[in-house]
Specification:
Layout (H helix, E strand, L loop, with lengths): L4 H18 L5 H18 L7 H8 L1
Keywords: Membrane, Transmembrane, Transmembrane helix
Amino acid sequence: MKRYLTFVFLLLSAVILIIGLRIDLQWTGAVTWALTLICLIFAAYYTKYIPDNKEDKKSRD
């Protein structure tokens, strides 16, 4: 399940940006970008759980 969290956080950051920037309230822009940055940090963290196909090919040979 952890291998899919990168995609989930990237999708979540896009949704936050789309919804947050359409709302015209005070501090919405700063909060939107802060939440997006947090989601992108988590997405970068969970990239280590994406399997590397190069290692699988080396072990098969």
